Amino acid sequence: MKTARPSMSRRDLLRAFGLGAGGLALAPLLSQLASAGGMQPRRFVFVVEGNCFEPVTMLSTATRAAIDATASEPIGDSRWWPNKVRHGSVLTVSPDLPTASALSPLMGALPSKAAVLFGLSSKVVGGGHSAEHGALSSARTIAGVPGSETIDAHLAALPAVRGTTPFDAVRLGVAPDPGRPLDFGTCAYGPGRAAPLMLQPEAAYNLLFGSVATDAGRLAFSRRGELLDFAAADARATLAAFPSSSVERAKIEAYLASLEELSRRQARMIELAPALMTADPGAAATPTSDAALDRFAAQMQLATAALLGGITNVCVVGCGTGGDFNVSYPGITSVGRHDLHHGSDANAAYRDAIHEVTRRQVATIAQMAATLDATPDVEGGTMLDRTVIVYVGDNGEQHHAEAREFPILLLGGSALGLRTEGQTLVFPGESAGSSHRQLSNLWNTLGYLAGEELDEFGLEGPIRVAPGPLSELMT
Questions:
Q1: How many domains does the chain have?
Q2: Is pLDDT of 286 > 50?
Q3: What gap in Å lies between CA 239 and CA 343, rounded to an integer?
Q4: Does residue 216 belong to any structural domain of this protein?
Q5: Measured on CA atoms in the order 431, 433, 437, 438, is the torsion positive or negative?
Q6: Sheet holding 193-198, edge to edge
Q7: Residue 258: inside a domain, yes or no?
């Protein structure tokens, strides 16, 4: 007598393996990806801070002097100095990044492999407390529904970026409630199709490294493969009952394609087992507390390990993004982020706490960059040379932002054609007209670094100033 097989709905199965509606829609595309053996790796990391980091924290001594020479009045102690700029062409400032208050953690070789950008706007996203998916998409999110794909999803779908990695992207995050599993307000596969951030480092670790971490994890991974094989065989048998032109058959074919993609992921993870064991972050991926910055550090460790292990070439790490920004920072202050901002004009200690959060986040980003820079790349040089790290706020320049200014920290990417050289670039403000540039131009630039002539990205419509990349960043 045959043993009865357990029943599981297709929807339950997809959820069990982390492939929701967005993943199902991507499955036909992903299943067509050819082997990328021999491709030069191209990696992209997006670190997104919720409810802004302030431009003044990235302002170096030389940059301050260059802006003062052309501004309507000296910057002085102003936190909102971007509204004072009056230059009509890009200011390129000599390397002195570590003199900025938040950039002191950039030590050793890192300052020469970094760049800071000022002057990029993205008013289409609305600003406010959070632009949600807008920062990475240059499109408006309305009522929590993304208006377009985010740049991480666009790059992750390119064969030249995806290569043979088992995951198109690894998306991690931090929210005020450590018990929340997912955030759907930061990334998107396309219009109306949010891509979740995994908010619990322990769950993310089990997904990414469980297949090699413990005996129980290896057993669970093996059973998952058996279940996928059974489900795929069941789907193929079911197809025979439906005519070729039926709607139900099309649904089952899409479901089968998703299962086959998951099976390919399983097979690739098996091939990567030696690299995964080497890259396994172990205890470093476990937060030392529920504090936001401790969880942020753990998620950054996981993202670094995912790159080192070849799990993915695209990572996103958000901290208080997607509108859920009121995180707290024990060890720095007992005041939550929302109250910090509202009280910071009258209370210098609140302002200093906000800036210290940025400095510590930069220190964690610098740790990722230093690890990649110490790791030889298969194509020569270091992994950082073929990795672009982008640090950006999700709403613009301040707590109640107008999205007129998105300060950016860039690291790495020299072998991909990114010119950093420790410089600060200050682009002209909105009043400069056609010489002004927008956040979408940076996303265009990343497209070029990925091997794509990406001259249009986002949904800015008539407020788009100029298409194409930022030539000042390209070698």
A1: 1
A2: yes
A3: 62
A4: no
A5: positive
A6: 91-93, 424-426, 114-118, 408-412, 387-393, 43-49, 314-319, 170-174, 193-198, 182-190
A7: no
